[in-house]
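Subject: Protein record for review, amino acid sequence with backbone structure tokens
Why sent: The fold of this protein is of interest and is recorded here as tokens.
Enclosed: The protein record, placed directly beneath this head.
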Amino acid sequence: MLTEERKNKILERLASSGKVLSSDLTVRLGVSEDTIRRDLKDLAEAGLLKRVHGGALPLGQVPFQYDKREKIAVGEKLAIAKTAASYVRSGQIVFIDGGTTTAQIARFIPADLKATFITYSLPTAQRLAEVGNLEVIILGGRVQKELLLTMGPSTLSEIGAIQADLCLISVESVHTEYGATVSNIEDAAVKRMMIEHSAGTLALAGAEKLGTVSPFLVAKLKDLSYIVTDQSAPAAFLKDLKAQGVSVIKA
């Protein structure tokens, strides 16, 4: 079997099963463990999967640039944002991150609701500021131009001085074993700090993000109050989440 043919079979198996085990691939493809390790290494370097101990998992495929992410699954993002907005109550202090799904929450906040939103996202801050009775605080830091976020040591120290009622975060990947993850290490650190300083957390993740893994941990599943996803989320995966005690909301 040619190398490229073997790699394609690995990717087909990954797509159908949601994971691959090195021991299983050696038997199925009739090659050595060293060969499988090299194949997985090559596929990981090409950005086609995420290597883990003993095999590989699907890699989150969310684009890095904010403007590109805004154009993906627009209808599903709006449904998820509308559901998340319904959990905000008057008088609350709310952390909200820089995801393109959380950025849509401002659309669904009632004009008469009084709450304080704290964010490190320039687009989210602007949209929330247009809602009549909201107080909006933007955290300081260096502007990350591709993500349109303010991030740095000052961002984390400011979050550490706040205790919020609610945290609304978008994540790139959700996996039953590896939790909620993203691809930017600084963004992961800010999200983690927000979760640690909140009484409750809603993680927003469209169906395309479920069952995938990105490099940097945001939260273990036990640290999330709810995961909000869309109607196309696979039932089997949601069942696995619920079996771990995770509360799932389908928008």
